[in-house]
Design brief:
single chain, alpha/beta, five-stranded parallel beta sheet, 11 helices
Length: 453
């Protein structure tokens, strides 16, 4: 089978490795428009804070990994068109300008997303940066170490924006975050947890200008300030725009079906509207398991799961099972806090018109008598108000709470109820946890009980 893959990031890489390592005889070619394979943007903060071995090692894989398995990886090669009837792609070598055609039996689109820019005056000024990819990472690193940069404005209070704010705060810059939403990480955390993130950002000297929009970037040739909707002009030697992403699919119009936002439409088997053309990664809307409907979930883990499923079923005229979906699990460190989320929260519940209930449980990680290394933990569970089936979980602490979030992710997949979780059998050792674990206690509180400690 001859397979062409468009895009060499998480989904494209996983598809190539799975096709070549699990099955013999496949002819696999990966076309990548960029010149580097394949910078991991989710590791950018670690690079910017000098916590990695080398910039060019912050990557998903090297071309050699696929080539050693018998595949081909071609950088600086942009797929510009697809002839779905002839099963051919048109490819341009962006270095030489040469254009060629290549045939395929199966085509996998992993075209990903591009950072959203703001349609305001001054967006083309110097020192208005985006925060995605190796080239931007290199430029941002230089600015973090530039003594001439004293004031930094970050547009966007999501994961990327908060990461950027922390990087430049630690670099000794004056940092302001501006966003239309009224709390940081508001698309991921509900108020009770997001308010604590806001407090720690403020404590560390990050100014928050939330509930406001950018009207313009101002300056002569180079940005000097950011004008907000209330008329305030915020000094800025550098602006980091972290205002979300958009699917990289403009070139696919009239080739495969797209929705009104430009996401590639796929069926439950990740097939597009074109025969033998599949799509995975950030440019599609995968099944959001706890909601039972598609949703945008731009995560590396999502793309890899899609790729694994796709490779298992790519040769079948009718696959035996649908793609099981994902929970959208993620985690982040914000100064002293560690947070982890999975599944449904207040934001996506509203967006997807879901009927939910939720509860908050706060306690120390270990029994009260443990005096050292015993921080507070906030647990929020989201569940179906009638069936009590668990739909989501959010965790915030100075301790590592990712294991608890992973446990809730499994509970969602297994359709566990609050009653199941309230009595689930977890280990006890006071140096680690309570006799009733945090998850037991959080579920008991959600059921209206007064838990024993």
């Amino acid at each position: 089978m001859k397979v062409v893959i468009v895009g060499a990031s998480h989904g494209g890489h996983e598809s190539a490795v799975e096709l070549l390592s699990r099955y013999e005889g496949n002819d696999v070619t990966v076309y990548e428009e960029g010149d580097f394979i394949s910078f991991m943007s989710c590791g950018m903060q670690l690079y910017l804070e000098d916590k990695v071995t080398d910039r060019d090692e912050v990557r998903n894989f090297s071309p050699e990994q696929v080539e050693n398995l018998g595949g081909k990886v071609l950088t600086n090669h942009k797929v510009t068109a697809i002839d779905v009837d002839a099963h051919k792609v048109t490819v341009k070598d962006t270095t030489t300008g040469e254009v060629k055609e290549d045939s395929y039996d199966k085509l996998i689109l992993s075209s990903g997303v591009t950072p959203a820019t703001l349609p305001v005056a001054g967006s083309d000024l110097d020192n208005v940066y985006l925060m995605r990819g190796r080239d931007w990472a290199t430029k941002i690193y230089a600015k973090a170490h530039d003594e001439q940069v004293k004031n930094v404005v970050v547009v966007g209070a999501g994961y990327i924006g908060v990461e950027a704010a922390e990087v430049f705060n630690k670099a000794g810059k004056k940092v302001t975050i501006i966003d239309m939403i009224n709390r940081p990480l508001g698309n991921y955390l509900d108020d009770q947890l997001a308010d604590k993130i806001a407090a720690t950002l403020t404590k560390h000297g990050v100014d928050l200008k939330l509930g406001h929009s950018v009207q313009a970037f101002e300056g002569q040739g180079q940005v000097a300030s950011v004008k907000s909707d209330d008329g305030q002009e915020i000094p800025a030697d550098l602006v980091i725009v972290a205002a979300g992403v958009k699917p990289n699919t403009k070139w696919l119009e009239n080739t495969v079906a797209l929705d009104e936002r430009g996401f590639i439409k796929t069926d439950p088997y990740l097939r597009t509207s074109a025969n033998d053309v599949f799509a995975i990664g950030d440019a599609i809307l995968p099944l959001f398991t706890p909601a039972g409907q598609p949703a945008p979930i731009a995560l590396a883990s999502t793309a890899r799961r899609e790729a694994r499923y796709l490779v298992e079923n790519i040769t079948m005229a009718q696959p035996s099972r649908v793609f099981p979906g994902v929970n959208g699990s993620s985690a982040l460190t914000v100064f002293e806090y560690k947070l982890a989320t999975t599944g449904v929260n207040a934001h996506n519940a509203q967006m997807l018109d879901l009927d939910t209930a939720s509860s908050i449980y706060e306690a120390t990680l270990r029994p009260k008598f443990v005096k050292d290394g015993n921080p507070e933990v906030t647990v929020k569970l989201t569940f179906n108000p009638e069936s009590h089936v668990i739909m989501g979980g959010q965790f915030l602490s100075e301790a590592d709470v990712t294991a608890q979030a992973n446990t809730i992710a499994l509970a969602i997949k297994a359709h566990m109820t609050l009653e199941d979780l309230a009595e689930a059998d977890f280990f006890f050792q006071p140096g680690f946890d309570r006799q009733w674990s945090l998850l037991n206690l959080a579920a008991q509180v959600a059921l209206g009980e007064t838990p024993s400690v």
